[in-house]
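Example 3.
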Amino acid sequence: MTIAWGRICCSAPPHLTISIRKAAHTYAALMYRKCYTVSVPSLKYLRETDYFGMASDKDVDKFSVSRLTATRSEIIDTPYVDEFPMIFDFEVKSIVEIGGHVQFIGEIKGIKVDEDVLNEKGLPIIDKVNSFIYAPTTREYWSLKDIVGKGFSSGRVFMK
Amino acid sequence: MTIAWGRICCSAPPHLTISIRKAAHTYAALMYRKCYTVSVPSLKYLRETDYFGMASDKDVDKFSVSRLTATRSEIIDTPYVDEFPMIFDFEVKSIVEIGGHVQFIGEIKGIKVDEDVLNEKGLPIIDKVNSFIYAPTTREYWSLKDIVGKGFSSGRVFMK
């Protein structure tokens, strides 16, 4: 499924949260497996990504329809999207019922990134990953443009 | 403080999570007040935003140094950044200890948005808000470029 509400929530050890509704087909799978993969799409796969948020595997095989490839993770018992440049494997550590959504907090157990999107330090080059941002209120996907500043650096002008 | 790990985590009722380290000066304030405001910066204030993540109010008055204005929320007992275009007020509903970070889950109690960044439906126009994205691994701030697709629409090509 496509996740709108997800984000890293702890640096060390690295954890990421996803929130999904109980009605989602994925919810039962998550409660059963207690693990999940997150596959980060590149812009090339925007239509497929949107489709994965519209259709349900209750009704149709989304991988088959979109011609994406489901590959079994080597680390946990879940599939990932083979064509996407960055894949993360998670084990569920906590489940928090909030309101309409249930939040799953997962610890990273594996990372798989296409070598051609990494820099010499092994870190992802954002414009090579070439992913996109979702603005839920207006239902728009946005691309990224330029580096406009550096963390822990641009603010130095205010340090004495 | 500047928050790297934060995200909406429930649509209805709307909740947003922030994760902070116990060592952060803000942690004690959060535990005491059990509420927080989130102020979304525009690109114009990138240097100030970065600075708020570098310095600590243990040592210096960050509002005074950066010449930003701390205004008291009308809804909860916390300050927000008056110059920033979008402000949200939250009451803490859950606290989850994860690892190095503690996650606070807050319910939205108030929203204050500059009128000139809203469309005719009262929704934020992303390029008028003109905020930016943080890529923590490479410590880069990125601007947004273009609308590259529409949610629940771009994927229709795969629907039968």
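The mean pLDDT of chain B is 95. The radius of gyration of chain B is 17 Å.
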